[in-house]
Amino acid sequence: MSNVVTVKEILETIEKAHLVDDVNAIVLDRPLSEQGIDSLDFSGILFNLEEVFGVEIPDEDIASLQTINSILIYIDRKK
User: Fold this and answer.
1) Does residue 77 surpass a pLDDT of 80?
2) 7-78 in CATH: which number?
3) Confidence (pLDDT) at 1
4) Handedness of CA 51, 53, 58, 64 (dihedral sign)
5) CA-to-CA distance for 22 and 14, rounded, in angstroms?
6) 3-state secondary structure at position 69
7) What is the pLDDT averaged over residues 49-70?
8) Contact at 8 Å (CB) between 73 and 79?
9) What is the crossing angle of helices 39-53 and 68-78, to 10°?
């Protein structure tokens, strides 16, 4: 059985990477691109999440990962 990934763990990973000014301001079900996170920062977020959670995110899956909630579900399924 895999470990369940939490929103807190994802936000802590983003915060530790210093890619977002205030992770507490992130709305979980709103696209990150609408919250001031540009494509370069988004790539950095995905890279850090891959490293921390030991998952690989193929390019074809990136379009479906636009919110913290969608990232959470995706990583939880991959673990």
Assistant:
1) yes
2) 1.10.1200.10
3) 42
4) negative
5) 10
6) helix
7) 96
8) no
9) 30
Other Cβ atoms closer than 10 A to 6: 11
Q: Token pair for residue 24?
A: 């507490």
Measured between alpha carbons, how far is 4 from 20 in angstroms, rounded to an integer?
24
The pLDDT of residue 19 is: 82
3-56 pLDDT tens trace: 789 999 999 999 998 988 899 999 999 999 999 999 999 999 999 999 999 999
CA distance 9 to 42: 17
In angstroms, rounded to a whole number, what is the distance separating the alpha carbons of residues 19 and 8? 16
Helix axes 7-16, 39-53, angle to 10 degrees: 120
Residue type at 37 in one-letter notation: I
